[in-house]
Design a protein that fits this description.
The structure is a single chain. This protein is an all-alpha fold and 186 residues long. The chain has one domain. Helices cover 57% and strands 0% of the residues. The protein is built from six helices and no strands. The radius of gyration is 19 Å and the shape is globular. The termini are far apart. The relative contact order is 0.13.
């Protein structure tokens, strides 16, 4: 009988709790969206798919050991209200269509021919970094909302709404909050 070597590094209690928090967060974290009057018009079908995508992304990040567990569908839902505010730049448009096409693949939906990605609309390295920055921003906001919710529960405070991202940063106007919290790309 041959003994298998024990892994050199056992996960710490904090790492184990972090994994559990991320798993629970995938199901309970608020959906982070661009602050806009249009944020209530996000299609319900997209919002319903986000927990599943989060679980898949958590598993992918855990196995690869890098990145953030935010997928293209969640990035698409974040950008959706922004598309209603004003015209997008070419780069923003390519990001949006990339996320749209990937989200439709995830949901196993047929993409109309005029909305399919072409060589001209594929993302270059710079745009991929911009998308990664946006996903990192969404992840940071989700974790922040999760911690605020946990802190509120410890103090016995009940959150005013399900979507913590709608609450302003204290001492700032909504316009200032949008400028402070948005990635530079948007």
């Amino acid at each position: 009988m041959t003994l298998m070597p024990v892994s050199e590094k056992q996960p710490s209690k904090k790492e184990q709790d972090g994994w559990i928090d991320d798993l629970i967060g995938a199901l309970t974290d608020p959906i982070i969206v661009f602050p806009s009057p249009w944020q209530d018009d996000i299609p319900k079908e997209l919002k319903e798919q986000i927990p599943l995508e989060r679980l898949i992304m958590n598993s992918k990040v855990m196995h690869e050991g890098k990145g953030v567990p935010v997928g293209d569908l969640e990035a698409l839902v974040y950008m959706f209200p922004r598309t209603m505010e004003s015209p997008l730049t070419d780069e923003q448009n390519r990001l949006y269509f990339h996320c749209f096409n990937e989200a439709m693949k995830f949901m196993r939906k047929e993409v109309p021919d005029d909305l399919k990605l072409t060589k001209r609309t594929e993302l270059n390295q710079y745009e991929m970094r911009q998308l990664d920055d946006l996903k990192r921003f969404i992840w940071d906001r989700r974790v922040k909302a999760r911690k605020e919710r946990a802190r509120g529960e410890k103090l016995g405070r009940v959150p005013e709404s399900k979507n913590e991202s709608k609450t302003p940063i204290s001492g700032t106007s909504k316009k200032q909050q949008a400028q402070i919290t948005q990635p530079k790309f948007f």
